[in-house]
Design brief:
Layout (H helix, E strand, L loop, with lengths): L1 E2 L6 H8 L24 H11 L6 E4 L36 H23 L3 E6 L9 H9 L3 E6 L10 E6 L7
Parallel strand pairs: 1-2, 2-3
Antiparallel strand pairs: 3-5, 4-5
Helix pairs in contact: 2-3
């Protein structure tokens, strides 16, 4: 199962090409699975958690959006950050408009971790991915979960798969062959 797959769902498509069974991705993007798989909607969250606890998922991968978690926002000329490494619950001088995105991004990331935890508790493997500039790893719930399940964390250069994209990610997984 692919959680937060992105518009093109590259992981789901790659696994499908290998001949494995893949569920429609769970995402907030309308092109991925429709409303029933939208994890910002109660129906989507309910379906995700029923599947996660079903013992039917062998591997769940997530790449939750990092825009509101990104430390890149601290560079000059960028959008105003809504949190910092020392103020994960919100910058002290933040504008009132930032409260909703701040809460939404925290809730979203914790929902993803809860779903991964359910899959792991039922015997499945998990993968979690975010850029190295994401503050998501600084959240106690995220880092404690990854430590508890003894996830291996390693960098992945996106240009290894698509030379036109100069991004990198940190990938945490309980499935060691993924590192290759």
């Amino acid at each position: 199962i692919d959680i937060c797959s992105g518009k093109d769902a590259p992981l789901s498509n790659a696994v499908r090409i290998l001949g494995a069974c893949v569920l429609a991705p769970f995402d907030a993007h309308p092109d991925q699975g429709g409303r029933a798989h939208n994890i910002c909607e109660p129906e989507g969250q309910d379906l995700l958690f029923r599947l996660a606890w079903s013992r039917c998922i062998a591997f769940a991968h997530s790449a939750p959006p990092c825009s509101d978690m990104s430390m890149i926002k601290f560079f000059p000329g960028g959008p105003q950050p809504i949190r910092s490494p020392s103020a994960l619950d919100g910058c002290p001088d933040q504008a009132p408009w930032a409260n909703a995105p701040l809460q939404d991004s925290s809730t979203f990331h914790l929902c993803v971790i809860d779903a991964l935890n359910a899959v792991w508790c039922c015997g499945g493997h998990i993968g979690w991915e975010n850029p190295p500039t994401s503050m998501a790893l600084l959240f106690d719930e995220v880092s404690a979960f990854l430590r508890r399940i003894k996830a291996v964390i390693f960098p992945v250069a996106r240009c290894k798969f698509d030379p036109s994209i100069g991004k990198s990610y940190l990938l945490a997984s309980t499935f060691p062959p993924l590192r290759r």
